[in-house]
Write a structure and sequence with these properties.
alpha+beta; elongated; 135 residues; palmitate; lipoprotein; membrane; MliC family protein
Length: 135
């Protein structure tokens, strides 16, 4: 009797699984695509969340300048400063200034100003050069 009940339970489970028509069952590709869409939807953040995240962490940007110089800039938003490293590995800390629009960091004879992906880098004793963010 125990085997008969077990057989009935297994048969019932198998019929429940196979009750869907083969043409309506999602293919592997469709299932993967659906999971990817759901994962992306779950990770979307609001504008306020994105702004809070940017204001409370360090953001690294790499600039390529017209004079051939490559600058790596760490914008430390919580401390209102930026560290600029040139191609030779030399680094200088700049402090954030109030800009009407865009960014403005300076310290003694160094200055980084810009808006969007464009910036102007002024270094001690050299002509200012225009730069473009590449990362």
């Amino acid at each position: 009797m125990r085997h008969l009940i077990l057989f009935a339970a297994v048969a019932s489970a198998l019929s429940a699984c196979g009750g869907q028509e083969p043409s309506k069952a999602p293919t592997d590709g469709e299932a993967v695509r659906q999971r990817a869409v759901e994962a992306q939807t779950a990770r979307r953040r609001t504008g306020a969340e994105l702004q809070d995240r940017a204001l409370n962490r360090v953001i690294r940007t790499v600039y390529l300048c017209d004079n051939g110089e490559r600058l790596s800039v760490d914008f430390d938003n919580p401390r209102a400063m930026a560290t600029v490293r040139n191609s030779n590995g030399e680094a200088v800390d700049l402090y954030q200034e109030r800009a009407a629009d865009g960014i403005w960091y300076k310290a003694s004879a160094y200055e980084l100003r810009g808006k969007g992906i464009l910036a102007t880098w002024s270094a001690d004793g050299r002509q200012p050069t225009d730069c473009r963010a590449i990362d």
